[in-house]
Amino acid sequence: MLKIFNCDLHVHSCLSPCAELDMHPMALVKKAIEAKLDMIAICDHNSSANVPYVIKAAQMSKLKILPGMEITTNEEVHILAIFDSLSNLTLMQNIIDQHLPGENDESRFGVQAIVNERGEVEGINNQLLIGATDLPLNELIGYIHQFDGLAIAAHIDRESFSVLSQLGFIDDNADFDALEITPLTGFTQARIRYQELSKYSFIVSSDSHFIKDIGQAFTRMSLQETSFAELKMALKKQNGRFVMEQPRV
Question: Is the pTM of this model over 0.90?
């Protein structure tokens, strides 16, 4: 039986530059549960080190955690990469580590903390996570799909770090699995503004960098259960699964 689930596929942790340190795994899981979210994807900038700890923090709850990452291409386009397993996420991380130059400046970009499910600091990531990889967009999408992941163009309606702001268009051959829009635009206006993109499923996410933002925006989906396989079917509009674009009442 299909049910409606609240899904936020773009949540950061304290590992991301500009995210508050209060966004440690247990805190963000508790807030997501309080906000009545059913499934979230952890997508830190160019790194996935906190994902296993968020999964552990949520293991005694019904909240489903999907492993992910928000990756910056060499065109400075942000792409959400979401996977079915930690092992595939690790394969993607290995590629990113080979293509991400630079070292973090804590005085400018903040501490990039790796924190476990008990709130203990496991280490500090010194990579320049706020920077861009040297991977072109299409090559990155190819890697994501090679590791059985979903490639979602992030916040396409923003004036920076989106595929439209950086490239000016979305190629007909672009192999995106979905497009993310900000809650400021919303589904209705996005469908009017981007009629040429009608073949894609749209999602709305919180892009939470602060605890208070969790639950402020999400996408309702008709699924049988909260799982990667069900999400994939919903984005492809298969077997009765789909993204609900009607306004919440």
Answer: yes
Helix (H) or strand (E) holding 36: none
Cβ proximity of 44 and 23 under 8 Å: no
Domains of the chain, first to last: 3-244 (3.20.20.140)
Cα–Cα distances (Å) from 156 to 66, 103, 113, 168, in that order, read 22, 28, 28, 10
Q: Give the whole-angstrom CA distance, residue 186 versus residue 199.
A: 17
Beta bridge partners of 45: 70
How many of the other CB atoms lie within 10 Å of CB of 242?
18
Poorest-pLDDT segment among 16-20, 72-76, 238-242: 16-20
Where is 88: in which H helix or E strand?
helix 86-99
Q: Which two structure tokens, joined as six digits, stand for 73?
A: 């291409």
Yes or no: say if 134 and 99 are a contact pair by the CB < 8 Å rule: yes
